[in-house]
Write a structure and sequence with these properties.
Helix content: 55-70%
Radius of gyration: 17 Å
Strand content: 5-15%
Number of helices: 9
Distance between the termini: 30 Å
C-alpha cells in the first residue's frame, strides 16, 4: 500500500512532517481532514482525533508529530534530523518540544480571539507572555549559531520552531519579524528551501 499522511493544511504539526517527508524524498499520499467534521475513517485510525497521522506502506499507523518524526528519522535516516548521541538527541527533542509548545500557545491565543475574549483576561496575558518568552529564547539561541543546535545543519528543532512561527504569521500577525532579527533572518533563509516554501500554510 501507499504511505498516507492525514493532515490539515494549517496545522503546524502536520507541516513539520510534510517537510521531513519532502527532505527525505519519500512518496506518499496526502489526505486532508476536516477537523470540524472528522470522518469515521480518520477517527478509526486516530483515537485522539488530531493530525498528523502517518500510515506506513506496511499499514503501521503512527499519530503525534514527534513519534512520526522519530520513526521517519530512524527508518529513513538520510538526511538525518535527530542527532544519534543520546544526550545530543535529548537536547534536540527539548528544543523541538519548545517549538511545538510555541505553536500550541499560538493556537490557543487564536481560539481565544474567536470567543471575543470570553475567558478571563489573565488567560490571554498568560498566553502572550508564554509566546514572547519563547521568542526571546529562540532569538538568544540563534545569536550563538546558524541553527538552533549549532552551525552544521538544521534539525527537527528548527523545523518545529519554523512551523510554529509560520502558524503565528497565519493566525495572528508578523510583528515579531520587526523585533527578533536573528529569528527573522533564520526564518527567511530556511524558507529558501523547497520543502519549506512549498508547505507554507494558506
Amino acid at each position: 500500500m501507499k504511505r498516507i499522511l492525514y493532515y490539515h493544511q494549517q496545522s503546524h504539526l502536520a507541516r513539520k512532517i510534510r517537510i521531513l517527508l519532502a527532505e527525505k524524498k519519500l512518496d506518499y499520499e496526502l489526505k486532508e481532514v476536516n477537523l470540524k467534521n472528522k470522518p469515521a475513517e480518520f477517527l478509526k485510525i486516530s483515537p485522539i482525533g488530531s493530525v498528523p497521522v502517518f500510515v506506513e506502506e506496511d499499514g503501521t499507523i503512527i499519530w503525534d508529530s514527534t513519534l512520526i518524526a522519530e520513526y521517519l528519522d530512524e527508518t529513513y535516516p538520510e538526511p538525518n534530523f535527530y542527532p544519534t548521541h543520546p544526550k545530543a538527541k535529548l537536547e534536540c527533542r527539548k528544543w523541538e518540544d519548545l517549538g511545538d509548545n510555541l505553536g500550541d500557545s499560538v493556537t490557543n491565543l487564536w481560539k481565544l480571539n474567536l470567543t471575543n475574549n470570553f475567558a478571563p483576561p489573565e488567560y490571554r496575558t498568560r498566553l502572550e507572555t508564554a509566546i514572547n518568552r519563547l521568542l526571546t529564547v529562540f532569538e538568544q539561541q540563534l545569536a550563538k549559531s546558524k541553527y538552533l543546535l549549532g552551525d552544521e545543519e538544521w534539525t527537527i528543532a528548527d523545523v518545529a520552531v519554523l512551523c510554529s512561527l509560520g502558524y503565528y504569521n497565519l493566525r495572528l500577525n508578523e510583528d515579531w519579524l520587526l523585533e527578533y532579527d536573528n529569528l527573522k533572518n533564520w526564518f527567511n533563509k530556511l524558507h529558501q528551501r523547497e520543502s519549506v516554501s512549498s508547505t507554507v500554510p494558506e
